[in-house]
Amino acid sequence: MHDLKWIRDNPDAFDRGLSRRGLEPVAQRLIALDETRRAAQTRFQEMQARRNEASKLIGGLKKSGQDATALLDEVAALKERIPAAEAEDKEAGAVIDDLLTRLPNLPGDDVPDGPDESANVELKRWGTPRSFAFTPLEHDAIGDKLGLMDFTAAAKLSGARFVVLKGPLARLERALANFMLNLQTETHGYTEINPPILVKDSALFGTGQLPKFGEDLFRTNSDHWLIPTAEVPLTNLYNDEIVDPAKLPIRMTALTPCFRSEAGAAGKDTRGMIRQHQFMKVEMVSIAHPDYSEAEHQRMTGCAEAVLEALGLPYRRIVLCTGDMGFSARKTYDIEVWLPGQNRYREISSCSNCGDFQARRMKARFRPEGEKGTRFVHTLNGSGLAVGRTLVAVLENYQQEDGSVIVPDALKPFMGGIEVIR
User: What is the pTM of this model?
Assistant: First the structure.
């Protein structure tokens, strides 16, 4: 959500930000609509005041036995005109609100410009991809040979883009989730939350999924939505709240199932576990002071990378360009893990600083010490990590020529003595 006052004061800067996102300028239209609304509000208030004044005068004239016909006619005319001004005010306000809620966040000044992922910029790499004495398989082939990853059974139950994991592979996914939660809570200081996974419209509006992206989500017949990520319930814990600034930053993490109706471009990643309608994810959310959100963004991204480093999985960090960022993000780092079966890096985490964009939609504020007014907090979110994709990375990077998979050392305490999956 954008600040209309800021747009009025900085129309060119606002349109430049939209242009960097590939959107047409809209500032002058918003300003004109705002002027129409303000004029209608002024007329409405003036007519109401005159009607009240005339009504008092009418009472006085009647008490003194004087003719009040002219004032009665004026009040009658005002009663007819007032609803039109009120309707014009509401109509202009509705158009303004609809426009503002559908416009994405403006990119940060240091975000690279570009139309799509081809303009993303690599910032660093960690780890050296393993050299194999054999041709490494993709994760679905590994899982199939192990007899522990069943897409056919899942399709019978639910259709395409679902999977059934069995035995040690199911335990390996659970081990990953437990390891990630322990790392983010015990080492990195996040508070574990167990939130609802069914939410109301207002929660998805607050984080920016609604109204624009409703078709990407699953909705129930009770008007609840299945969450696409725990970012939604975690961030909305501070919906319409005034936070004590001494408690900032607030860091939360949650392991939840996530549901996405739109699971990627048609025909892309139709095999395997990369893009599914249902998946597990450990999410990190920070509610931060505006002055320190950039530092918090760097910290959060490092917390996600620490998972891969502990697992010995090579990765790279990239900064997304303006054309590839999500709707609510001001700046986003993607972490891409090396998948030897595909011979390329694939996204495993996105960490975004949303600035005050979501906070404005949610009215999440804090009151600076010594000030009467409030300011909007900054919100950040990141995967720490997507559990299924991390499972994919472990299978491909730790596969052996005989089809077995070695369990990474960091996961062995969670595997009940299983060190190799055969």
Answer: 0.92
